[in-house]
């Protein structure tokens, strides 16, 4: 099985299309959406519809903090993310909101554990952004999977791999775009697959990853897409300009 | 794993014989096993199977280096590594099947040969440096080069074996850990490896330097330390100059060896290609006090270095390909007949620009002459005289270039086919960039046949800059 891992789409329809097309070209025959389908972006309806259709074909879909916010927009929260939650909520149909509300927080595929944020109390939405956080995530995952787990997460919008080196703790590794990295069975790791719809590392290209369970290799990809159209859609929808310009600069 | 008897079949491979029973692994010669119908597949080349003695159950530590080799070997290509065939499942029966290459390890060669000549050493050293450079270009640092891991082929080529301690810049380094322990073999390990740096191609240059030292003197430059403190000695110590052991050794060889063994990586050859270049052109080696000395360094010299070494610590390495791209070997092809001043001027400008920001780039000026120009009977056309005339001419051409302290060399090649000669030189010396004139001088045939620059540009192993002639206005006025 070749599993495409897509996280933090954030209602960016253009970026999602580009990643799905690329994943199919790579021979991906299964999809996993690691949460944050919506929020920030201008196309929540199209994105949720497409993900629902893929779920019918067997795709794994998880809940992220922005999906939760879209279901029940926080009234008191003045943060930027929360400001689009209310708008997103009004766009989505009752069926779509119900779909988001019923999404699970984790999923298991063989020795893989999929989760939006850290496996360490997923409902707390903790960031896996350091070897320490990755270690906490891994120990929690070890309770949930019988074999040595490989945990695949989103939420941080950066691509990284934390792996078991010669020492006791996890070592951070920055993957090279497009180079499949060996992730052998029996050697624990935590991979942050990055964000499809809202890159924040100065590179506007979308991020996703493909896990090949046959060859035990994980490839991190960066995909150029029509970010100008995605930004234009945000402006046309009357959402804050910041979310549009951020797609153009990848910041 | 226990020793397997001939005839045993493992995952479709049949054991023929055990060739080597080492501390870490058994190595067998194998063939494809016969299938149910008794049909045996032919292999394209002889094959060897390596099976680690330790299995996954014996504790993770021992199996890690096998796992590293399992990850890196299949990615490597080229004439300097055995071809990869198959690998066994690590959790079941770990093994690695690869091409079996005949030839002798450098260890055997050193033990057998009574006295190697400096030319032998340079030849073997250059072969090793070329092999190491081929790995570095694939973003792999070997990090455990030693005589037992270098196979010398009948054609003189060096093949690198055993990638158990290697580091692939695009893969997670399974041997890395927070404590940055020294990983390597005590005799050959580079100073930066002692403090835990993994992934600097110049660590392999150091190991080649140690092997050259062994070939030249029969001694090891830093002994075989068994303690961490003993290993740290090479962070500051200059070894006894080879010429103190063997005064007859040429200065150029000592210069090369001691440059490889500099404690600070920045002071060694910046890439293995530069080392191969010097070893293949002994006459062009710039000899300094380092090459001439016959006495070891004194107390104060070592004391100062010791102080500096005390602060040496782990730093992450950049990508090997990135690092070696910063130190290119630039080759300029200088025509000598029917060539205008404008062309020579433009070539010089292009060279100056290309060397520009890279202080460690090296320049090779090459001219190709036809074999008919030299004669063994006429004195004025003797090879020496003709070559000297061309060398002088090239040096005059290079004079206006600002080459302070930069490695520069001049070469006259004799060949009937200019393009072939330039290409062979570029390939043989790991040249990164060829600079040449865009037009073939004075040839009216240009429109009909592929010209020399076109042929070079199409077949070159590297970047080619074709220079169009242009003259600044003030010079035009005089021409």
Description of the molecule:
The complex is a heterodimer of chains A (about 250) and B (about 475). Chain A has about 250 residues and is of the alpha/beta class. Chain A has one domain: 4-Layer Sandwich (Purple Acid Phosphatase, chain A, domain 2), CATH 3.60.21. Chain A has helices at about 15-25, 45-55, 65-70, 80-90, 95-100, 130-145, 225-235, 240-250, and strands spanning about 1-5, 30-35, 60, 105-110, 110-115, 150-155, 160-165, 170-175, 180, 190-195, 205-210, 215-225. The longest helix of chain A has 14 residues, at about 130-145. Chain B has three domains: about 10-100, Phosphorylase Kinase, domain 1 (2-Layer Sandwich), CATH 3.30.200.20; about 105-320, Transferase(Phosphotransferase), domain 1, CATH 1.10.510; about 330-479, HUPs (Rossmann fold, 3-Layer(aba) Sandwich). Chain B is built from 17 helices and 16 strands. Chain B has helices at about 60-70, 105-110, 120-135, 190-195, 200-215, 230, 240-245, 250-260, 270-280, 290, 300-310, 320-325, 340-355, 385-400, 420-430, 450-460, 475-479; strands spanning about 10, 15-20, 25-30, 45-50, 85, 95-100, 105, 140, 150, 160, 165-170, 330-335, 360-370, 410-415, 435, 465. In chain B, helix 16 (about 450-460) links the parallel strand 15 (about 435) and strand 16 (about 465). In chain B, helix 3 (about 120-135) packs antiparallel against helix 9 (about 270-280) and helix 5 (about 200-215) packs antiparallel against helix 8. The longest helix of chain B is centred in the first third of the chain and has 19 residues, at about 120-135. Chain B is globular and about 75 Å long. The interface of A and B includes residues 165 and 184 of A.
């Amino acid at each position: 099985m070749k599993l495409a891992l897509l996280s933090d789409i954030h209602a960016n329809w253009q970026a999602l299309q580009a990643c799905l097309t690329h994943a199919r070209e790579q021979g991906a025959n299964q999809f996993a959406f690691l949460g944050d389908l919506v929020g920030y972006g201008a196309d929540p309806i199209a994105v949720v519809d497409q993900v629902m259709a893929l779920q019918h074909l067997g795709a794994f879909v998880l809940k992220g903090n922005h999906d939760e916010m879209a279901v029940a927009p926080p009234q008191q929260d003045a943060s930027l993310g929360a400001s689009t939650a209310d708008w997103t909520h009004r766009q989505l149909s009752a069926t779509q909101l119900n779909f988001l509300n019923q999404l699970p927080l984790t999923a298991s595929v063989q020795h893989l554990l999929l989760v939006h944020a850290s496996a360490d109390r997923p409902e707390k939405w903790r960031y896996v952004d350091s070897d320490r956080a990755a270690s906490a995530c891994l120990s929690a995952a070890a309770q949930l999977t019988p074999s040595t787990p490989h945990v695949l997460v989103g939420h941080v919008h950066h691509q990284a791999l934390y792996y078991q080196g010669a020492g006791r703790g996890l070592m951070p590794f920055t993957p090279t775009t497009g180079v499949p990295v060996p992730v052998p069975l029996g050697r624990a790791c935590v991979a942050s697959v990055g964000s499809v719809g809202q890159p924040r590392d100065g590179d506007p290209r979308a991020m996703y990853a493909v896990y090949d369970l046959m060859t035990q290799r994980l490839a991190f990809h960066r995909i150029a897409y029509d970010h100008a159209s995605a930004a234009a859609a945000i402006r046309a929808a009357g959402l804050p300009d910041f979310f549009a310009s951020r797609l153009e600069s990848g910041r | 794993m226990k020793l397997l008897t001939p005839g045993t079949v493992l995952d479709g491979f049949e054991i023929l014989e055990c060739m080597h029973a080492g501390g870490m692994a058994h190595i067998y010669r194998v063939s494809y096993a016969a299938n149910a119908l008794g049909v045996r597949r032919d292999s394209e080349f002889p094959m060897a199977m390596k099976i680690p003695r330790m299995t996954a159950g014996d504790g993770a530590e021992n199996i890690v280096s096998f796992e590293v080799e399992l990850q890196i070997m299949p990615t490597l290509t080229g004439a300097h590594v055995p071809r990869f065939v198959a690998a066994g499942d690590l959790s079941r029966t770990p093994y690695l099947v690869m091409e079996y290459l005949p030839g002798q390890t450098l260890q055997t060669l050193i033990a057998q040969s009574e006295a190697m000549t400096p030319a032998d050493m340079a030849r073997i050293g250059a072969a090793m440096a070329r092999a190491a450079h081929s790995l570095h270009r694939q973003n792999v640092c070997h990090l455990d080069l030693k005589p037992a891991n270098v196979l010398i082929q009948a054609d003189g080529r060096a093949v690198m074996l055993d990638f158990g301690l290697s580091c692939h810049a695009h893969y997670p380094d399974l041997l890395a850990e927070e404590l940055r322990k020294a990983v390597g073999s005590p005799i050959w390990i580079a100073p930066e490896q002692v403090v835990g740096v993994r992934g600097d191609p110049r660590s392999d240059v150091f190991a080649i330097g140690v092997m050259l030292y062994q070939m030249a003197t029969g001694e090891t430059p830093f002994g075989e330390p068994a303690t961490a403190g003993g290993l740290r000695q090479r962070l500051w110590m200059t070894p006894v100059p080879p010429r103190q052991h063997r005064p007859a050794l040429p200065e150029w060889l000592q210069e090369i060896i001691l440059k490889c063994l500099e404690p600070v990586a920045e002071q060694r050859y910046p890439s293995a290609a530069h080392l191969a270049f010097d070893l293949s052109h002994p006459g062009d080696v710039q000899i300094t006090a380092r090459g001439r000395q016959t006495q070891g360094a004194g107390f104060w010299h070592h004391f100062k270095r010791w102080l500096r070494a005390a602060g040496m610590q782990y730093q992450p390495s950049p990508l090997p390909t990135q690092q070696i791209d910063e130190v290119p070997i630039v080759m300029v092809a200088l025509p000598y007949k029917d060539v205008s001043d404008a062309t020579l001027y433009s070539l010089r400008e292009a060279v100056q620009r290309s060397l520009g920001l890279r202080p460690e780039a090296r320049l090779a000026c090459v001219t190709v002459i036809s074999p008919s120009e030299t004669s063994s009977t006429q004195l004025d056309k003797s090879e020496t005289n003709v070559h000297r005339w061309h060398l002088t001419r090239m040096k005059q051409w290079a004079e206006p270039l600002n080459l302070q302290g930069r490695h520069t060399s001049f070469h006259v090649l004799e060949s009937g086919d200019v393009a072939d000669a330039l290409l062979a030189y570029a390939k043989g010396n790991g040249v990164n960039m060829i600079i040449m004139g865009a037009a073939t001088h004075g040839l009216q045939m240009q429109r009909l046949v592929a010209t020399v620059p076109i042929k070079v540009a199409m077949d070159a192993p590297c970047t080619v800059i074709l220079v169009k002639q242009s003259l600044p206005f003030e010079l035009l006025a005089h021409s």
